[in-house]
Amino acid sequence: MKQIKEICYKESSNISQKSLAEKNGCYAVYGASGYLKDIDTFQQSEPYIGIVKDGSGVGRVNLYPEKTSLLSTLQYIKPKEGTNLRFLFYALNSIDYKKFLEGAAIPHIYFRDYGEELVYCPSLSEQTRIVSLLDDAFGKLERSREKAMKLLDDAKEIFQAQLKKEMTPKEGWEMKKLNEIAKYWIGLTYKPENVSQQGTVVLRSSNIQNGKIDLADIVRVDNVNIKEQLYVEEGDILMCSRNGSARLVGKCAIIPKLEEKMTFGTFMTIIRSESNKYLNYFLSSNDFKDQLPKKENTMINQITRYMLDEVSVNLPPLSDQQAIVSRLDYLSSQLKQIEEKTNKYLADLDELKQSLLKKAFEGKL
């Protein structure tokens, strides 16, 4: 058994996301969510491992190709002599990084901490054998995951087709700008020192899960002035309007009845209208997404108030809205059942992966 720090070493990146705006070239830069853009230089000439050390996705481990770079929120991990790169990759994936987390507002991990972890580290030939077994097993698990995701994507496409059909304008409908039928504003700005064990819950993007409000992961703030307008109300739509991950921008959920007053963060938007139940479905439709401007700067993932001002909505009479929402609620519940079953299956696959890794790095594979 050896400590992680005995079989690899770390290097740091000095590339900030902001610094990429004016750079172009042919060498890829990656962030926590994946590929960002090409720039004119690279920091690593050989394949390497990267680990997210700060912020969202902390502890995520990936392999990267030669002649590429990472943002400074990730750390380069490179094998020492006598260590197979892919063996090290699997070893790092076997670690539970939750026990090394520090920081409430912006979680981070340190090499000095997880570098103390003990893993089974045999000869190079034995490492190669273990890598071959894991590559084969993980390849099969990945193909199973892809099949499950394809079935889920098919179900989502069917739902979107029905959503489009339900929202196709009919006699008596009116075309309205979103700002004619709804009010919307962004949330609270606060500092890391405002985060506390007591105080007001601040709803963030992580509190929207599968189209519903999820309070499993909450942040509270204290000693900050919260205007009355920044407290959410039952029936409001909470939207993620800005995020480092483009796929999270635009996700929405209706605020249910809450047991305490809550606010929402500055990267979120509240939308308030008497047509909110209908609008919640509209905001998940391709019609809404197609009206948003295609961003020229791939570094900015956001939906601004000015973008929402330009959105048009085919609005049926209130009675028709209720009937449409009722039908979509039923279809949505069926889709959520498929999503829950798929997520459980994917979780089982992940558990099997961790079981294989545990055996491998205890020397039992």
Low-confidence stretches: none
Strand content: 15-25%
The rough form would be described as globular
Tally of individual helices: 9
Please outline the major beta sheet: 4 strands, antiparallel
Mean pLDDT: 94
How are helices and strands ordered from N to C?
EHEEEEEEEHHEHEHEEEEEEEEEEHHHEH
Beta-strand segment tally: 21
What is the rounded Rg? 24 Å
The residue fraction in helices comes out at 25-40%
Structural class: alpha+beta
Arrangement of strands in the largest sheet: 2-8-5-6
Q: Termini, distance in Å?
A: 15 Å
Quaternary form: single chain
Can you give a write-up of this model?
The protein is an alpha+beta fold. The chain has 9 helices and 21 strands. The chain has helices spanning 4-7, 85-93, 111-114, 124-166, 178-181, 276-282, 286-291, 305-309, 318-360; strands spanning 2-3, 8-12, 27-31, 34-39, 48-52, 61-64, 69-70, 74-79, 118-119, 174-177, 183-186, 195-196, 200-203, 208-209, 212-213, 219-221, 237-240, 252-254, 262-264, 268-272, 312-315. The strands form 7 sheets. It has a 4-stranded antiparallel β-sheet with strand order 2-8-5-6. Strands 11-20-17-18 form a 4-stranded antiparallel β-sheet. Strands 12-16-13-19 form a 4-stranded mixed β-sheet, with no helix packed on it. Strand 14 (208-209) and strand 15 form a beta hairpin. Helix 4 packs antiparallel against helix 9 (318-360). It is globular. The model has no long low-confidence stretch (mean pLDDT 94).
